[in-house]
Amino acid sequence: MAETLVIRLPANPEDSCTFAAVNSTGQLVNAPMAGHLEDAVPLIGTRRVIALVPSSEVLLTQAELPPARGNKLLQVLPFAMEEQLASDIEDMHFAVGSRTEDGKYPAAAVAKATMEEWTQRLHSAGIQARVMLPESLTVPAAPAHFTTIFVEDDQIITRQPGEAPSNFVDLTLDEVLDFLGVGQDPEAPEDIMVFVTEQDQAKVAATLELLRRQVASLDIQVLANGALPHMAVQASSKDHINLLVGDFAPSTSMAKHWQPWKLAAGLVAALFLVTAVGKLVEGISLKREETRLDAAIDQAFQQAFPGQRRQADLRRQIRSAMGDTDSNDSSSSFLQALEVLANSMQGAKSSQIVDISFRGGVMNLKINAPNSVSLEGIADRMSESGVFDVSIAAANPKDDGVEGRLEVKKVGS
């Protein structure tokens, strides 16, 4: 059962950090512990490490970005957040999460110097974290009509429907509620969920009692063992914004882990290569892939030449259907493009070819895809063949996805 060690870094490097391990079902493996970072090293073993960092150092927001993936998102994100930052974007490190249902992207910005300090503290202790996230993201987003409030020491974290978490330091709960406007509209009373540590419960008791009379409902959950157990479970069980990307992405250290296994792995590989069982499995796999490829080629052929039955000599049939039996170059290019298209569609099972045309050495495709990311994936996989240049000429939103038009032509033509 996969386990995760969650380490919470304090804002002051001189203060103790806290750490706890959880399993894949979200249950604590050990009671929360406190100490120096080096004290957490014996607990790592094969566990994945998540580092929680102070939310006060990280700007969290929701950015409107063009549909894209990976590095492309990180390239445009700084300019989308520039107006919200007091520092130059060159001095900032950015991270982005998965696109939400409303089309926005959760995004984070933190000073590069701060990221360097956090990662250096971990590395100095011999700790390689796979994930680093602001602790405010471990405050759960309540149902759509709820506001969540997390109270711990001098810090208050709030999450309102459809918004990124907000972090308040050195403000009272009364001041935070006034700032958010909670309980001020008797015509639209809110539902509130409050998480408060046991040591802070008495400090906010009077405010919560008054709040109970002003809102539709108030659910108070007291964290008897402190904030870390709750944060650790939330951190390990959800897909959050990982700050360890780009220049701060964790190294795989493959050489260190691979070296002891090189000989054993070589023997296993040799065994599979020379045994009949390995050949049989490979043959079955190739046969299945050939069947899938033939089906994809059939679909593409029918779109290009509706009503015609595919013959055994597909190359000759294509030349004949194109009206020029001597047009070897054109038919060869079309057949190549057809095969590359069929392979590329294997990775996009929810996409469908609507129309194919081939004129002047250029194949025009009309494809229905569930989203623009899937459409880009098809174009990228075709381009990876190295034979064709593929460009997205149009991507028009539809109720059930995106209708895209791709232009495919041979490299250098």
Protein architecture, described:
This protein is of the alpha+beta class and 413 residues long. Helices cover 35% and strands 27% of the residues. It has eleven helices and 17 strands. The chain has helices at residues 70-81, 112-124, 173-180, 198-212, 227-237, 254-258, 262-274, 276-304, 314-321, 328-345, 372-383, and strands spanning 3-8, 17-23, 33-35, 48-53, 59-63, 92-96, 105-111, 131-134, 146-152, 155-159, 166-169, 191-197, 217-223, 352-359, 362-369, 388-398, 401-410. A five-stranded mixed beta sheet has the order 3-2-1-4-8, covered by helices on one side. A five-stranded mixed beta sheet has the order 11-10-9-12-13, covered by helices on one side. Helix 9 (314-321) crosses helix 10 (328-345). The model is unreliable at 253-260 (pLDDT under 50).
Main β sheet profile: 5 strands, mixed
Q: What kind of assembly state do the chains in view correspond to?
A: single chain
| SSE topology string | EEEEEHEEHEEEEHEHEHHHHHHEEHEE
Shape: globular
Write a short abstract of this structure.
With 413 residues, the chain is α+β, with helices and mostly antiparallel strands. The protein has helices at 70-81, 112-124, 173-180, 198-212, 227-237, 254-258, 262-274, 276-304, 314-321, 328-345, 372-383; strands at 3-8, 17-23, 33-35, 48-53, 59-63, 92-96, 105-111, 131-134, 146-152, 155-159, 166-169, 191-197, 217-223, 352-359, 362-369, 388-398, 401-410.
